[in-house]
Amino acid sequence: MLFEIVTTGSMLGVLGASYYKKNNLNSDHDKIIKIADNCGLYTKEEKIRLYRRRYNKEKKFTEYVYKIPLGLELEDFQDKYGKFKDGLNNRSVRKINLKDFKELKLDKTILKQIQNIINNREPVNKEIEMEYDGMLIFRVFDEGLTKDLPYTKEMLDNCKGWEIPLGVTYKEFVKHNFEKMQILVVAGQTRYGKTVFLKNVITSLINNQPDNLKLTLIDLKGGLAFSRYLNCKQVNTVAKNSKETLEALEAIHTEMVKRQEHFLSKGWEDIGEAGWTERHFVIVDEGAEINGFEKKDQADRALYLLGEIARMGAGIGYRLIFATQYPTADVFPRQVKANTSAALCFRLKNATQSMVVLDTKGAESLPVGLKGRAIYQTDCDRLVQTPLIKNGFIDGIIKPHIVMKPRSESSEPQNSKEDTKAGEYTTEFKEI
Ligand SMILES: Nc1ncnc2c1ncn2[C@@H]1O[C@H](COP(=O)(O)OP(=O)(O)OP(=O)(O)O)[C@@H](O)[C@H]1O
């Protein structure tokens, strides 16, 4: 009996799926034609004409190739992107999930359960992409960007060197490479995923570069978010207030100046040429708090030092991540903004804030309440879903890297010599 139901169910599922695909193909093409018509994308003599259609099974998209009327160009169609996208997503579809048949309960409600499976409808979530290559290429992806991306070990294994898993777009996995883009600004309204992303960065780097990573964590939200990393051997400092922040930044600055002199004396152009493998990451969570330091001269000094790390640091092995929920012009040290090559921007309050971070509007229009959704800006802007890393997963990864460190009230870096004054520590340069 069970076998019959499952077999019948599977057959219905297969038929349903192929019915869905066939109709889906036709209706998407019909819709594209109709939307183009309604948007005035035709001339007196001609309308767009389908030349070829092909389904890419692996990447799950249908490619429609259209001949477009003379006098129209790709941009005319791209301008109507929103209309095409909404038009292709304006309904729900019957979707039979085969795995639901496996979960059937053998009781008197069985027919009802099968009916529910067959009548199941889900909103469509397609993404489109347009390109011109003598013809207009219209790619309709079966699935748009996911709303939910768990962080996995596979993602981590996929990252090499100084890469970390940044997230996914609707069509690919995206990594951020700190060797190529050494400064990263992270912005977003509260509770949209900044801290989770920073924990992703720290955990990924600890796992992939355990012997080369050095971390200075400046957590001006009280130090709780980063507390689980406190005893990791890669963590040099966790600074939680203005005093500790200044001490840590002064120490880094002193070290940077010495390192620069050393490079000069050796004739090395950068850390690559020096052959040094260590990278020192300075991660600031809630950079806007610096402006709120009690003494203005302390705030100015801290912003200046961060600016110096951004200006001088990249070539000699320093990396900076500056995160804030209040991206106004005065929050960003000028040098940080000027030297930033990448930004990850979650939803922001308004277009002005978006302009500060991305130099363009858009972050204010990201979906309300959708955590982890962001614009990743490098040489282009990409809409991404960032991975959600769970604390249990983090603890498993960092466990082998935890060492017992002496508890100290001060945030003086672990490798500072006892006789150095606060804000000063000695770096021994090792040639390899
Ligand atoms: N990528 C993600 N995917 C799904 N949910 C997420 C993601 N990132 C964060 N969240 C959820 O949102 C909550 C808030 O995230 P997070 O603490 O990173 O926010 P935040 O931007 O740092 O906020 P605040 O500025 O107030 O510290 C998390 O506890 C988690 O439940």
Give the name of the CATH architecture of the largest domain.
3-Layer(aba) Sandwich
Give the name of the CATH superfamily of the largest domain.
P-loop containing nucleotide triphosphate hydrolases
| Main sheet makeup | 8 strands, mixed
Report the CATH topology name of the largest domain. Answer: Rossmann fold
- Mean pLDDT, all residues: 87
- Number of domains as seen in the coordinates: 2
Alpha-beta classification: alpha/beta
Order of helices and strands: HEEHHEHHEEEHEEEHEEHHEHHEHEHEEH
- End-to-end separation in angstroms reads 71 Å
Q: CATH first level of the largest domain: which class?
A: Alpha Beta
Ions, cofactors, ligands: which are bound?
Answer: adenosine-5'-triphosphate
Cα radius of gyration in angstroms? 27 Å
Q: Give the proportion of residues in helices.
A: 25-40%
Number of helices: 14
Number of strands: 16
Question: How much strand?
Answer: 15-25%
Shape: globular
Low-pLDDT sequence parts: 1-20, 408-432
Produce the secondary structure layout.
Blueprint: H1 2-38, E1 49-56, E2 61-67, H2 74-78, H3 81-88, E3 92-94, H4 98-102, H5 110-119, E4 121-123, E5 127-132, E6 136-141, H6 153-157, E7 163-168, E8 173-177, E9 183-187, H7 194-208, E10 213-219, E11 235-239, H8 242-266, H9 271-274, E12 279-285, H10 288-291, H11 296-312, E13 318-324, H12 334-339, E14 342-346, H13 351-358, E15 373-377, E16 381-385, H14 391-398
Parallel strand pairs: 9-13, 9-14, 10-11, 10-12, 12-13
Antiparallel strand pairs: 1-2, 2-6, 3-4, 5-6, 7-8, 14-15, 15-16
Helix pairs in contact: 1-3, 8-11
Bound molecules: adenosine-5'-triphosphate.
